[in-house]
Amino acid sequence: MLLPPTDASIVARRAEIIAALTAIVPDGVVADESGLSTFDTDGLSTYHQMPLVCVLPSSREQVSEILKYAEAEGIPIVPRGAGTSLSGGALPREDGILIGMGRMKRILDIDYENGCVVVEPGVTNLNITKAVEDNGFYYAPDPSSQVACTIGGNVAENSGGLHCLKYGLTTNNLLGVTIVVPGGEIVTLGGKSGCQGGLDLLGLVTGSEGLLGVVVEVVVKILRKAPVTRTLMASFDTVPAAGECVAAIIAEGVVPAAMEFMDRRAAEAIEAYNQPGYPAGAEGILIIDADGVQADVTWTVQRVTEIVAQCGGRTVEATDEKQRARIWSGRKAAFAAMGRLAPDMICMDGSIPRHALPQVMAEMEVLSRQYGLGFCNVFHAGDGNLHPLIIFDLMKEGEFERAEAFGADILRLCVKVGGVLSGEHGVGVEKRDLMTDQFSESDLEQQHRIKCAFDSQGLFNPGKVFPTLSACIEQGHLHVHGAQLPHPHLPRF
Question: What predicted TM-score, i.e. pTM, was given to this entire model?
Fold first, then answer.
């Protein structure tokens, strides 16, 4: 992995920078080695890099002053939520300020009349639901890491979750954000009404991975809890049959609240980990939620059961809320359960058209044999968001490199069948150098122009998302014509 070179002149001013940040946030500067080691990686834990310094603001005003100082001094900034990013989006810089938003964790307003909650970015995803559930409401996006991941990070990555099939990603449940842009200006986009007028800057900021500003306040929609929810498990003798069933359900116009897939290897590891009661011996399993009013749920369950049978599968239904919770607890523990199969794991994240599921799953098996590495399939089948879990041993020479190459080929496969590199985990450093596989030179140039409009010095999260020039050369995307250097917008490191 290639990151921008460390600016030695900034590192040489470390003591001065620490003193300046301490003046802004007297009780929130982490500068000792043991403290900084807490922040040297995120969920993509195979990459580590110590930050120059970490600062933990407790107000938007402090964030503004930090950014004013960084802009004036030309110091890179890396925003960080809970550090659950699986693409290296919060990987720090040796010559940069890491801004940890974990202290800004107040729920500022709960507005049941308008169906929204106003929170600071450090509030965890699950705590929004906990704050309103006694009144019959909830926050729909539910990433597997929802007990830990924060809403600011959710906005940065446009996170999804198990129930995004029916209720959408973060962007579909977001009404407004307040961000601090480079230079320290505080800007509010949208609000309780969701209206902003003009350009969709709220949509632009959502999923921008810390490239455009630091989120300091978020307004999210809350929904009334459905009166009826039923959970089905469908099991299949082959993985392609499960994939065909997913495509058939969606083609029929049936929209379950959730439809999750796991293969036999994943299901067996999960069953051994926390015993959720998954069917033994099935090559493919679907977990399907139907929610809404009684009549709609009854019809959905009946139709799904019929389609499963037509695809050669078998269906069982959770008998009570306790069993429902146990079934879903297994799915949410999938990543942890993989530790039973191998010491290390990379979770990929690509999205494909649902009709391509059988083809893609078959080709992933071929790639697995080619690279000599195992993998498990656990993913959001309903919206075609794949999360292949590549298992390997970091201590065995060459396995990590093979795992990365295997993952890159999976993502290229997603693009080949009409999909995209990322569904909800972002690009970060993991997929940065694959961007030329999905986007044309003009696409990347436009993206870079937007980046420059917000951050003319390129100080916010540098080395993330945008591919390096060397990557373009290596991948055969660099062609010099008429003595004109292509990709003038890409960093030369």
Answer: 0.91
